[in-house]
Amino acid sequence: MVSQPRKARGLGLCSGGLDSILSALILKKQGVHVEWITFETPFFSSEKARLASHNTGIPLTVRNITP
Q: What is the value of pTM for the model shown?
């Protein structure tokens, strides 16, 4: 019995900036299943990351790290 190779998976930290988006899209194009995580504080919104997720279809997890 030969097992099927597992699809590569990657987790990226997404700010919503161009470098986050391009690096994830390059990995996705190479067949890697990519998901993002971003952190939200009173000083840093997750709005750009949410928009990037919406536009690319890459799943995003938002964690509020306010103490």
A: 0.85
